[in-house]
Amino acid sequence: MIAIPAIDLREGACVQLVGGSYDAERVRVEDPLDALKQWLALGFRTFHVVDLDAALGKGSNAGIVERLVSHAPGLTFTVGGGVRDVARVEAVLAGGASSVVVGTRAIEDLAWLREVAERFPGRVVVAADVKGREVVTRGWTSGSARDIRDVLAALEPLPLGGMLVTAVHKEGQLEGVDLPLMAEVARTSRHRLYASGGVTTLEDLRELAKVGAHGAVVGMALYTGRLDARAVAQEFAE
C-alpha cells in the first residue's frame, strides 16, 4: 500500500478542512507548489490533487493544477474536483495526470460514467464520499440516499482505475479511520481501494494495508505534523 499526500486547492492555496466543512479550515499553505516540494523532498512520488472550488462551483484552480502536475517528471497525480463533463476528463488526463477522479456526476449519472470509463479504461477513479454509510455529493453538501454497498454494486462492472472512498465523518479530525467501512469496500469490490479520511497514525496506515487498501490519502496528519512524514514515506511511499 502507498501513502498519498493530499493537495487540496481553495482560492489558490493548499488547505486542509475539518470534517469537510468549508467553514473549518485548519491549514493553509499559500503556494501549493511549496507543499508539493516539501513532500517530494521526503520521498513521496504519488499525490492526490483536488480543486475544492471547482467541486462546489465556486471557481477553478486549473492553472495551479497544471503547475503541480508539470513540476517534475516521473511523478504520479490523481486529479479531481468538479470534473463533470468529458471535456474536463480529457483536459485533466492530457495535462499529465495519471488518473482523473470523478465524484458527483459519476454517482448521479451512471450512463455518463460508463462512457468515460470505457473511453479511458483504468484511468477513471470514482470518488465515493461517505457520511456514516450514505454516499454524499456536491462537495459533501448533498445526500444521495444511497448506501455505499449499493453504489459499489452499480460500479462493479465498469473498467475503473479504482475507488476513492472518503469517510467524511472522519475527515480532518485526527481521530483515526473508519476501518470497518474500508474493510467492507475492499472485501466487496474488485476495484482498487484508495482510502481517505482520518488517517492519524502509522498504525492506521498499517491497518488499512491489512484490510486490502491499495492506497491511503493522507492530509491533516501530515500538514500538522501529527504524523512523521519522513517515517510515512519510508514505510509507505513508492
Summarize the structure.
This protein is α/β, with parallel strands linked by helices and 238 residues long.
Task: Tell me what you see in this structure.
- GO terms for molecular function: 1-(5-phosphoribosyl)-5-[(5-phosphoribosylamino)methylideneamino]imidazole-4-carboxamide isomerase activity.
- It is found in: Cytoplasm.
- Belongs to the HisA/HisF family.
- Its main location: cytoplasm.
- The chain has 238 residues and is α/β, with parallel strands linked by helices.
- It has one domain: TIM Barrel.
- It is built from eleven helices and twelve strands.
- It has an eight-stranded parallel barrel with strand order 1-4-5-6-7-10-11-12, surrounded by seven helices.
- The chain is globular and about 40 Å long.
- The N and C termini lie close together (9 Å).
- The model has no long low-confidence stretch (mean pLDDT 92).
First-last Cα distance: 9 Å
What is the CATH architecture annotation?
Alpha-Beta Barrel
Oligomer description: single chain
Write the CATH fold name. Answer: TIM Barrel
The gyration radius over C-alpha positions equals: 16 Å
| CATH level 1 name | Alpha Beta
Order of helices and strands: EEEHEHHEHEHHEEEHEHEHEHH
Strand order of the largest sheet: 1-4-5-6-7-10-11-12
Identify the CATH homologous superfamily. Aldolase class I
Instruction: Describe the largest sheet.
Output: 8 strands, parallel, barrel
The averaged pLDDT comes out at: 92
Percent helix, as a range, is 25-40%
Active site: 8, 129
Pathway: Amino-acid biosynthesis; L-histidine biosynthesis; L-histidine from 5-phospho-alpha-D-ribose 1-diphosphate: step 4/9
EC number: 5.3.1.16
Subcellular location: Cytoplasm
